[in-house]
Amino acid sequence: MEKREMMYEGKAKKVFRTDNEDLLIVDYKDDATAFNGQKKGQILGKGAVNNVMANIIFQMLEEKGIPTHFVEQLSERETLVKAVTILPLEVIIRNVTAGSFSKRYGVEEGRLLARPVLEFSYKNDDLGDPLINDDHILALELATEEELELVRRYAFLVNDALKEFFLEKGLKLIDFKIEFGKTADGTILLADEISPDTCRLWDVVTNEKMDKDRFRRDLGNVEETYQEVLSRMKKQG
Ligand code: TMP
What we know:
This protein is α+β, with helices and mostly antiparallel strands. The chain has helices spanning 46-63, 99-105, 134-139, 145-168, 213-216, 222-234; strands at 3-9, 13-18, 23-28, 31-34, 39-42, 70-73, 78-82, 85-86, 89-96, 112-122, 131-132, 171-182, 188-191, 199-203. Thymidine-5'-phosphate is lined by residues 92, 98-101, 175-177, 198-200.
């Protein structure tokens, strides 16, 4: 596999073309941003942690019947993935109140929701990723009805699988964000990453925050926490 020119650079990853137009290489960075890029920093070792962790999770999800872009890990920070066009939607599922949900609805963080909540945000940094509903998505033709239905179904399946997976590692899945992409032949795949950057994970025993909120909120022990989450991921069981 030949790594060719960079196609795209995001806040946490670079994406490179390869000699096969159906395959891309993602290269995870240590850069961290928050609040739509207003807060910037680095979390040393994060790129490697997120790469390995996302790959462990994508393989677990594939085994449960959720198609993902994952093909093969190439190095500590690089992974070969199927080329997709990312749907301009951030798909968020919340099990427990936190973050922008708590702020928006005036509820304390840490309340178990009576049922999981799915939210969509329109993926657009200039607009600050505004919340968007199914009607908006269909009216703006950001996805078709069939795609939207599939995305919802996959998102709840991912939630069930991730909740169980993290609980075995002593972590409560509070909420998470995922993204989907479309291959050239129109297949919808889970893409982007699943990592402490994109999930809220609280220790089952201490309720300690084990995710990017440590960076967002200046809670300290950021690097150590990412390493701890990775070492829990690698333990069997
Ligand atoms: P929020 O409470 O700030 O809306 O975040 C909900 C979840 O989405 C949380 O697990 C963090 C994740 N997230 C991202 O992955 N990227 C983002 O840009 C934001 C704002 C949140």
